């Protein structure tokens, strides 16, 4: 077991819990996409973990502007990225109100990522990470981090570890008793201890039954939660095939449920 504890209680807010296309899916008329239950509306996956003194953003996808408009405006102390895919990084430019270089009262935001993600950001968003920034762009401090080495962002000590999105190694994170994993299909045995005995496991589950080459099904996510002995599990990164929120939760064990956009958990 990885024994790391945050210095104080924290609040986890799910800013988005959907897969890469979001829910409703464009053009779809299934019962989930037509649902009027707000729990069935899923923006792209992102979360915010905060204490009184520290605010940490987990991923920053294309819905970031909409998501950040829904939370109180205050400084962001760091962003931890899981991988380079569009639905997890495309909103980085939307951080500019928190750190634009023509707002001198705001400070730069550290962005933490593995080497592959950092390299790709330099290629895909050079105007955010170049040497000569023009007025108005976000002021970001891109930091490359290795797996398994703890680092601190304010009140939080964070340990990145590796899971596989098909054959792409991406980062999952252990933050105290919280484990946050998205886009996982598989994990090596030697990475399992980093996910064990979490008080809260957040993990991806795309849909029921039908296997996917790079994402877990609900059944696979439940089996993983049992393997790592999570005390409570919340499922994210679901598409419209996961079913209606209320009906799906009724089929799941009481300790394993769907997360939803706007859900807050006290840790």
Explained architecture:
- The structure is a single chain.
- The protein is 17% helix and 25% strand.
- With 267 residues, the protein is α/β, with parallel strands linked by helices.
Briefly, what is this?
The protein has seven helices and 14 strands.
Please tell me how large the radius of gyration is.
Answer: 18 Å
| Helix/strand order | EEEHEHHEHHEEEEEEHEHEE
Main β-sheet, spatial strand arrangement: 6-5-4-3-2-1-14
Q: Please tell me the overall pLDDT.
A: 94
| Helix-residue proportion | 10-25%
Quaternary structure of the protein:
single chain
Biggest sheet overview = 7 strands, mixed
**What form results from the Cα inertia axes?**
globular
Number of contiguous helices: 7
Distance between the termini: 18 Å
Describe this protein with a few key phrases.
267 residues; alpha/beta; 7-stranded mixed β-sheet; 7 helices; 14 strands; globular; disordered N terminus
